[in-house]
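Justification of computing resources. Each target in the renewal requires a structure prediction run like the one illustrated here; the chain below, 207 residues long, is used simply to show the kind of job we budget for.
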Amino acid sequence: MKKGGFMKDAMILFVITLVSGVLLGGVYEVTKSPIEAANKATQMAAYKQVLPEAADFDDSSMAPAVEKATADLAGMSDQFGNVYVDSAAEAKDASGAVMGYVVNSTSKDGFGGEVKITVGITADGTVNGIAFLSLSETPGLGMNAQNESFYGQFAGKNQKALTVVKDNSGAADNDKINAMSGATITSKAVTNAVNAALYFAENCVTQ
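Resulting structure tokens:
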């Protein structure tokens, strides 16, 4: 190939690459805001699901507490598994008083990958409810965590940590959760994520 032809081809390739990059950048900027808005809406829906009585959710002062939880939990895997707190917000009533917390926590110990949940915790440390943000477990087994028969067990629990059991004693004991049949790993992953949120509310938030 002649030198001039090579330079021409290189220039054409450069222009194509440049234009493609600009177009991709433009698409990203166009879709960025809608994606962020959709994520925010999903998060707000989860907040309202786990603490529907709250009038507002304020995360402006939560960063130090989230950082503390991340540092603490990293050294407590024997108790909590591989978990961390992603973010959190104060749940406030109509007068602006803090009535509890909504905590986004993740367990990396799911059978199919990460289990991400939102946990609503009242001011006295009671779990008000949980909502799933991400769950990729086995259909018919671990995915049954989305059934109220499982996740509904957490509401009303008031303990520093919950334990998964297989003997169906969870309904009678405030510190126990009944495992799903054939999905003990998922049951423990969800429970560990809840325990991470409880730890956050108990030990990382300045009352």
